[in-house]
Amino acid sequence: MRIAFVLFVSMVLSSSNWAAEPAAPPRAARSVHLGYRVPDAVLFYNEMTVLESTPGSYFMAAGWNTGYFGIQELSDGRKVILFSVWDPTKGDDPNAVKEEERVECLHQAPDVRIRRFGGEGTGGQCMGNFDWTIGQTYRFAVTAAADGQKTAYAGYVWLNDRSQWEHLVTFRTRTGGQSLRGLYSFIEDFRRDGRSVHEVRRARFGNGWVKTAGGEWAPLKRARFTASGAEWEAKDNINAGVEDGRFFLATGGDTKTTHALWSTIETPAGETPRPKVPFEP
Length: 281
Prior knowledge:
By secondary structure, the chain is mainly β. The chain contains 1 helix and 18 strands.
């Protein structure tokens, strides 16, 4: 009888507004994404312009189901470029993955660092100093080459000051022989200190293209707007849409929502120039 009474009191207290504990304030802005509607591909090309940033931000231009590629402003203000590919295993401890299951590095540019990562799955990470600036457009490309049950993913960035492509890295991982699929872009707040939620991150994405496994080129004209949903993230200050003929994403600070989550966004009809890349598969 005493147990039943205690349970009853607990239920009453938990359902009473005056007894409920106040919700903790959000400590981070939501991650916002564009999921592109395109076929599986052997090459993914995209351009990105960061319009507003703050320390602890990742602007990801070219992501797929086993990796992602973009630029970061670190918590200390340093600017870097980042290309990561996941191991084909589950878990967050990179040291627990067997050698034969780990991402392999087949190519490394002389000015980048290669290491293992964990905490969000595990895999191989390539990072290099990259002094990107607000308002300048950067070009990214990822290629996929299947080799039996594995796929080699190569990351390239156009160096604006040298007018040339740089092959940063090639990682190979077990995929069952698949190509690039589930293509997307995103913006992430990884500082998550309670102040970062009040700071704006905003970028444009455009002139995106894929080359399909069949050899056809297709522009990225349609994307779905999605966002992360952790309880410790702010829920309302996010947005996506089209401006100046390109997609945009924004999160944090005084951002106002004009497009509903899960809505499909389309850029204006019309031809955009197909990229000319010397490493085309």
